[in-house]
Amino acid sequence: xxxxxxxxxxxxxxxxxxxxxxxxxxxxxxxxxxxxxxxxxxxxxxxxxxxxxxxxxxxxxxxxxxxxxxxxxxxxxxxxxxxxxxxxxxxxxxxxxxxxxxxxxxxxxxxxxxxxxxxxxxxxxxxxxxxxxxxxxxxxxxxxxxxxxxxxxxxxxxxxxxxxxxxxxxxxxxxxxxxxxxxxxxxxxxxxxxxxxxxxxxxxxxxxxxxxxxxxxxxxxxxxxxxxxxxxxxxxxxxxxxxxxxxxxxxxxxxxxxxxxxxxxxxxxxxxxxxxxxxxxxxxxxxxxxxxxxxxxxxxxxxxxxxxxxxxxxxxxxxxxxxxxxxxxxxxxxxxxxxxxxxxxxxxxxxxxxxxxxxxxxxxxxxxxxxxxxxxxxxxxxxxxxxxxxxxxxxxxxxxxxxxxxxxxxxxxxxxxxxxxxxxxxxxxxxxxxxxxxxxxxxxxxxxxxxxxxxxxxxxxxxxxxxxxxxxxxxxxxxxxxxxxxxxxxxxxxxxxxxxxxxxxxxxxxxxxxxxxxxxxxxxxxxxxxxxxxxxxxxxxxxxxxxxxxxxxxxxxxxxxxxxxxxxxxxxxxxxxxxxxxxxxxxxxxxxxxxxxxxxxxxxxxxxxxxxxxxxxxxxxxxxxxxxxxxxxxxxxxxxxxxxxxxxxxxxxxxxxxxxxxxxxxxxxxxxxxxxxxxxxxxxxxxxxxxxxxxxxxxxxxxxxxxxxxxxxxxxxxxxxxxxxxxxxxxxxxxxxxxxxxxxxxxxxxxxxxxxxxxxxxxxxxxxxxxxxxxxxxxxxxxxxxxxxxxxxxxxxxxxxxxxxxxxxxxxxxxxxxxxxxxxxxxxxxxxxxxxxxxxxxxxxxxxxxxxxxxxxxxxxxxxxxxxxxxxxxxxxxxxxxxxxxxxxxxxxxxxxxxxxxxxxxxxxxxxxxxxxxxxxxxxxxxxxxxxxxxxxxxxxxxxxxxxxxxxxxxxxxxxxxxxxxxxxxxxxxxxxxxxxxxxxxxxxxxxxxxxxxxxxxxxxxxxxxxxxxxxxxxxxxxxxxxxx
Length: 1029
What we know:
This protein is mostly beta strands. The chain is 1% helix and 32% strand.
């Protein structure tokens, strides 16, 4: 049996066109930073770790008290979702939410709603409320609507249903402010204008009417309970505050634009009723208005938040015992206004967002009367600060604790606890009613942490479009195993992985530089101050290189310097690492960013030359600095650069343009090749500049050549093996490969010779096998590997593979170059051979034979029968991926093994008398002949993969077989089922009496509508034959 199987599978391999490097698969096969690998389209671009227990700007809290214990919902605004915990009473830090609303799963964060794949999803939800029936109302600010999810925890489907939409005609009709009309109506809302979502509020009165703050329309609306029936189209409000009618939305006249104006509202946000039915509304004048009567345009009864004053008194300082928000000496608001209000009984609490505190007022019956000098009641107590006059975020501490706040925007009361959305600490705190310290935290792993989402060494934050975009990687190609370093820019750290080959989703880094642990993201640790650099801390690190001794150099962009950390993996682990060299500043504690030969402004990219000299792109100063050293000398702290490229001298900083090859405009990442050429991403000039002999260049030297008209080139990496180089085109979501310089300069026009897809790529690196690693603007690191292709093991076609069939895997572009090895040939075939594994949709496939260019294997029976399946070839000893592809799958792919092993001609067949069919042994008419094939597809009760059956196992149905010109009757098919070896298919059939004699009698079949005569080339038909006497 072993020899029979070898006979069929020892084939003449086709010759694939060879290149100097493999063809890289267009999509990533591994990633780091997100909990799971998603190709395209992506479902998240959020920074850091998102898996259902974290927040990015939580902004509202609501409790469903129709059940016990109450359910708690939190609007996770910038993750575009609402999270729900079923047992609010039992919550502890790190608990995962039980339900996600507005996304399909816990990992997705992109804005949803009309025009997306999830019309019932959410975009920047800013408020939540629960009615008396347990229905959840969400202010879907980015979609300018309110959506109602009926009792979410009672719904059992995969997709939560919506039964009411307010502010738009239907759930999918659109998301325009005021439904795209020039003026509001009683049916429209304006929560978001020109992409800016405003804080809003939702609350119910005792009668069940819904009250909504409509911020961009400068009003509050009441929607009566009678208009809130399920599937009501365009419910209408019946009352408006802040405007005199439903079609007005203008701000107050200039003379009335002040805190004491009780008639108008400006961008109202939080609102709530107290037990007595009084309504409190926070608005953009940094105050809270109290309403006691309700009719269109009615004015407020009182205003909270105005400091007391009297003639001759000292100037008011903020915050104080009356104020809400912080004003400067000129009376200008310099902080966010109060965003949220909640009540306990008749005590109102105000989230004084800009003063980083929550203040409590006495019941209104105890308020002093309003006067000209004291228009507002005094604050009774404060949470988040030690006194009424303190207003720093987190009380000025380096990191938060259980008593501090950072921009709280809403709160709620449940049972005996106050719950606060501590927005910029990205957490929700629960305080016992009269306590100064919280006893529970959700959204963070402990009270001391406050990052966007979570960080614990499994994530990155590379791109903050409003602040900075960074990211950088390097693989230490001299270490064994290869170490991978990632500049986690916005987390102010560098992550290190001991083995670059095995990094995958969910892995935790092996070391961290710039922080004391994986849970913090301090600037300039341990100072915590952006103006106070240290020898251990970082501020927005970007470019990375590793020298021949394994030392790591880091472009510490925010501190205007480059630091060198001695061989990080050779240091004691778990101990804060310290740099032993600084370039760009005179010492580890200075921060001077003026242009000179010794100072840098914003170092971005790094490249090392053959003698250890260093090039640094200084992006803000539009230049590259070259620091020289020799093989026997080292750099010194504060060493002056020897040359500058992009400028004519060390003090010039003006941006260059494309009219010359000597100027630069915002250079980003750089790289060098083995001939000391320097490749510079001249990002704002949309080109890559290549400088020859850059190590020894004179200042101001022009580039030897440029590659022009590129769409935001950010990253570049050069192969030391082939000289080919890759360029990250951030705005095109592509990475292009170019030929080596010697070939490139002879091209006209310059042509790229490879392409992969990446989401806003920012930086690139290559491992020692020239596999591409990309840092994406979607806050993840993606890994690309050589692309696989396949052939049917009998006919060599490339039709979709079927479960159970035998096939060959090859690598495109450049062969595997594997160490040949045979399996034993006996059952079961191994799933690891020559330190190789083939994974098909995650399942190890049996391998029969490995040669230098090809792997012969059986497709697992559990493989998909449609679409694509992910194929991986890996070395299990190291985790290295040698090839990957998403390959097509089908129900069946029948193919005859041929006697000449070429896929056509005489088939492999045995006559009834046991002789091998052929011209010298033709089969008699009316006699049975046995055919040997593969590709029958899924068969029930099949033996384990890699094993031959020990009894006949029939295919689910019979094939349609033609011999000569005759279609074989089903009754003449004696057997169709699994054959004598793993992956084999045997068919025993009677040769029709009408078959003419000859040595080229055609034979073909179809099974599950798939034909056996499909050849290896598109559209090709092959002929298979038998000999008949």
